[in-house]
Every structure is written in structure tokens, then in C-alpha cells.
Amino acid sequence: MKILIAGGAGYIGSVLIPKLLERGYEVSVIDLFWFGNHLPREVRIVHKDIFDLQSDDVRGFDQAIFLAGLSNDPMAEFSPSKNFIFNAAAPAFLAYLAKGAGVKRFIYAGSCSVYGYTVNELYDRRSPPSPTIPTAFPSCRASRG
After folding, report:
1. Cβ atoms of residues 5 and 28 within 8 Å
2. Rounded mean pLDDT, 117-140
3. What CATH architecture applies to the domain 2-114?
4. CA-CA distance, 145 to 126, in Å (whole number)?
5. 76 beta partners
């Protein structure tokens, strides 16, 4: 199975990718490498901005995983517009390209920022969104209690 990971050179990708390779997956990474490149040598690297991708860049993959978002509340508060660009527009554009190129599965990796800050309470994908940061997703903001 061929997997494309956008933002794969970051913290989560650098942990996830070796595990995928151990299980026999073929992995390619699209990244701007803001934090360097500590990926295994067998990973195919595409040094490109998501918005510069074409359909041919994503064609032939079985899955695409988006890990390229801004990952913390202070960044979102500092620039709500960049938060929207990196965490909503970029994954939406990649999903659009992937669907058009026949990629069967698209995974958007969320973070605890989707659910807000909690104490002594575990949240999972069934929990209601409750972001406490400027969000690109009005439906999440409307769900806040």
C-alpha cells in the first residue's frame, strides 16, 4: 500500500513513518522541512508546499494523511488567518486533489485543540468539538457549550 503523508517530517510523522515502513507500507512525504529531515532513507521526499501540488503529485497513492497543520493554540491566536490557511484550506485542497486523483482514503490528523482543554477527562473522536482557539470550522465553534 502506498501512503502519502503531508507534513510527515514533523514530530508525529517522524514517529509514525518508521512504524509504517516496518509494516511494509511504501511511504512518500510532502513537506517544507521547517524542522529538518530526520526520516528514514527509504522514504520518498517531495520538498513542496501543499498549494503547489498538482494532481499528478498525488496520483497512485492508496491513502493520504494530513499532518501539516499548525499544532498549537498560541499560533492560532497569533494569526487566525494563517490558522485557517494551514489547518483548513491546505487540507481541503489536498483532499480535493487526492479525490480527483483517485486516492481511496484521506485522513486529517486532529489534535487536542479540537476538543479544548480538559482536566481529568479523556476525549476521543466521539467527543463533541469544543475548541477554545480561533477556528477555521464554524461548525466546531457553534458546538461549543
Report:
1. yes
2. 65
3. 3-Layer(aba) Sandwich (3.40)
4. 16
5. none
Cα distances (angstroms) measured from residue 134 to each of 7, 24, 60, 75, 92:
22, 39, 35, 10, 18
Q: Which among 84, 111, 133, 103 is positioned nearest to 11, based on CA atoms?
A: 111
CB atoms within 10 A of CB 124: 6
Question: DSSP character for 129?
Answer: P
- Whether the model clears a pTM of 0.90, i.e. scores above it, the answer is no
**Beta carbons within 10 angstroms of residue 75's beta carbon:** 17
Task: Give residue-wise pLDDT tens across range 22-34.
Answer: 999 999 999 999 8
C-alpha cell at 100: 480527483
Burial of 91 (0-12, 13-18, 19+ CB in 10 A): buried
Higher-confidence residue of 123 and 111: namely: 123
Q: Distance between CA atoms of 145 and 18, rounded to whole angstroms?
A: 39
Q: Which tens digits make up the pLDDT trace of 60-73?
A: 999 999 999 877 66
Question: Dihedral of the CA atoms 135, 140, 141, 145 (nearest 10)?
Answer: -140
Domain boundaries, the chain: 2-114
Cell numbers 477554545 correspond to: 132
Measured between alpha carbons, how far is 62 from 76 in angstroms, rounded to an integer?
31
